[in-house]
Specification:
3 copies of one chain form a homotrimer. Helix content of chain A is 49%, strand content 18%. By secondary structure, chain A is α/β, with parallel strands linked by helices. A 5-stranded parallel beta sheet of chain A has the order 4-3-2-1-5, sandwiched between helices. Chains in contact: A-B, A-C, B-C. At the A-C interface, α1, α3 and β5 of A face α1 and α6 of C.
């Protein structure tokens, strides 16, 4: 009987003190130690587009390319960075080749009457850029406004 | 006696395995499945004001209007979107009618010597825009920089 | 025996209902009741630099200077706010004197061939601005895009 009590007590106390640990590492990514970062591009400024692409490069250098998962989400005025005539076409291609997710917001594309044929090859698409950013935040990804 | 043990054990084990669920959904909103998003407007650029109002519309379409709670907080250079002479007056009124919270920062109003009479009707007010955004982040709302 | 049961039950039930509280306050800062806020400056616009310095001042007024920990991280196009020729030199000095952390990103400094001798005195340095912002977010700090 005493053992059963001790076992129960250990479970209880373990539960109490384990809770903050769970709370500090809610996402699978955080638990596995891999950094996860979502970067929003929503400005019309081309120099900010370039800066956001730099961000991805910097993060890969900082954490090591195998230790970080990065998504760039272009929406609103930022969609231009992913259009066929983008001044950053070469850098976007390099970024994608480096394993960074680069996604266009299809809500924005609809508003601007853009088809996939109007966009850079090899990019990804998300139903809604904001939805993707919100989903990532809820999964525990860090959020950077580009 | 055995039943009592079983009951206690169930409580304990339930508590242990429930903890991560709580951790992943700390806010009442998240727990109820409703998305909650706070959008910051702090730029002087009118096209960014328009874009942030689009964001609210997009989020309502994405999640369904009854499944998302949205707050727009205007502060600093963004306060102009809520002034009586705002070029977005009609869109702000529509946004509010759609159930989106649209709040002016009273710290900014004080700095710019603005009274409520200088502002669009029907908007809300918060003591401090930053304080509101920080409060919402801590309550588990997603944060979008407009 | 009954008392022991009551004690165990109290622990269990306490554990169950305490869990969400832990989840809502995952960082040591939050647990101690102190607000913690990291502000990103990454724009070339000087008026936005001024606004971000205002933010720090506003937060100290809002929470009380002893109840908030603030870090400003300047990176990318924002690094200029911390250069020796910064138009905000006096305000930066005041901000630092008020106990706000003001940090330059050394990745940016490397890209722009800036040495510490090119920067304002008394500022702090971080290996990578993005890394610092991500670290703070993961520690439970609120994030404000300046």
């Amino acid at each position: 009987m005493k053992r059963l009590f001790a076992f129960l007590a250990a479970l209880v106390v373990g539960g109490l003190f384990a809770a903050p640990a769970f709370a500090q590492a809610p996402s699978p990514g955080a638990a596995s130690g891999k950094e996860r970062v979502v970067i929003q591009i929503s400005t019309p400024e081309q120099r900010i587009w370039a800066q956001s692409l730099n961000y991805a490069e910097n993060l890969r250098a900082l954490y090591g390319k195998d230790n970080v998962e990065i998504e760039i989400v272009a929406l609103g005025f930022g969609i231009g960075v992913l259009k066929l005539d983008s001044p950053m076409a070469t850098r976007v291609a390099e970024t994608i080749k480096n394993g960074v997710g680069v996604h266009a917001c299809q809500v924005t594309m609809g508003r601007q009457k853009l088809e996939k044929a109007d966009m850079l090859p090899d990019i990804g698409y998300v139903q809604a850029g904001l939805g993707q950013i919100i989903k990532r935040q809820k999964e525990g990804w860090s959020y950077i406004s580009g």
